[in-house]
Automatic annotation (TrEMBL):
Residues 41-183 form the Nudix hydrolase domain. InterPro entries: NUDIX_hydrolase-like_dom_sf, NUDIX_hydrolase_dom. It holds the Pfam family NUDIX. This is Nudix hydrolase domain-containing protein. Belongs to the Nudix hydrolase family. It comes from Trichococcus pasteurii.
Length: 186
């Protein structure tokens, strides 16, 4: 299924998602390279909110650039399968081997601002991530490992603890939205 269909089929959860979906569709009309980070203004990314089977904990990484506990995700880099990218990034960033989608459906969407920073010795300009998030599940007893070029910690934590350990104000709101959606499913 193409990105336009994914966005058309998705029922926004709140006003933030209504506006961000509208902008994503507009950017699709304006740019032809949104699946590659070579588009230095905006590009698509995929994230995952990885929960345990009881839905009481979430798997977070300590992000080296943002110096904050964070969800898991990454760039599409030319791929168009968002769920596959979310799963791949989860495995790469946490070291877990077994993870599966709770649903094949999109769980959340958001446009995220990314401040300029240095990555791998190169300057990256300020830009936005057009992010699609999937709800994934994993067994919290699996062994985890850091991905040193991206994170310096991997930990399961309670849903509220994940909010309190995040020191990015906008992301706290996104994580609260994800927890709210998760709680409404139960």
């Amino acid at each position: 299924m193409g990105i336009r269909q994914i966005l058309a089929d998705y029922s926004p959860f709140n006003e933030q998602e209504v506006k961000d979906r509208e902008l994503m569709l507009r950017y699709l009309d304006q740019f032809d390279d949104l699946f590659k980070r070579e588009n230095e203004f905006a590009h698509f990314t995929a994230s995952s909110w990885v929960v345990n089977r009881d839905r009481t904990k979430v798997l977070m990484v300590y992000h080296n650039i943002y110096r904050s506990w964070s969800w898991i995700g990454g760039h599409m880099d030319g791929e168009t399968d968002f769920l596959a990218t979310a799963i791949r990034e989860t495995k790469e960033e946490t070291g877990i081997e077994q993870v599966q989608p709770v649903s094949q459906e999109l769980f959340s969407l958001e446009i995220l601002s990314v401040d300029g920073h240095v990555k791998n010795g190169k300057q990256v300009g300020t830009h936005v991530h057009l992010n699609l998030t999937y709800l994934l599940e994993a067994d919290e007893r699996q062994e985890t490992s850091v991905k040193p070029d991206e994170n310096s910690g991997v930990a399961w934590m309670g849903l509220e603890e994940a909010l309190s350990k995040c020191n990015e104000p906008y992301m706290k709101g996104i994580y609260a939205k994800l927890n709210d959606k998760l709680n409404r499913m139960q």
